[in-house]
Amino acid sequence: MGIIDTAIMICKYVSAPRRTGAVCPSSKFLARKMVSAIGRTPEECGAVVELGSGTGAITARLVEAGYADRSSLFCIEFDKKLCGILSKKFPHAAVLNGSAENIRSLVGEKSAGAISAIVSGLPLLSLPKECVRNIVKEVEDSLPSGGRFVQFTYNLARSPKAVGFSDKMRHVHAYRVYLNVPPARVDVFEKI
Length: 192
Fold this sequence. Notes:
22% strand; 7 strands; globular; alpha/beta
């Protein structure tokens, strides 16, 4: 991601820090770790949903890795302007404007049944608690057994349990990515 994406993120952060959550786009190192944590090749994987796509740092890596056609990559972004940017950058992905609280209705019932992984760039620590509860429930209800939820946080000490999943999800991996501003931890959860 370049200077333009960084400038966009800074402006978004200044105007709505709790909703944006980051001053800079995710680094290529964080994006690679997020995508590798899906744990399945594009050929083995069903649909992938990205929550909080922003300027597309993680989206770019999903596309490079082969998760990139309108029936297999869904990018959910709340900000309409960012959706416009994403649509131009990634014409083979389905860019959807809306809340991560509505994953299944946004991707459509037919596609919702094929979701294998959800990758999240959402600032869960700064969103309202009720919103986070709704997102967590929607993630749990959207994934099949064995489906993965990949989330990063800048709070390296935070317990993965702080996400708030029920016993339907188990924490399977945690990776630290120091080559990111700020450093991040990637948590991987799997539906039981």
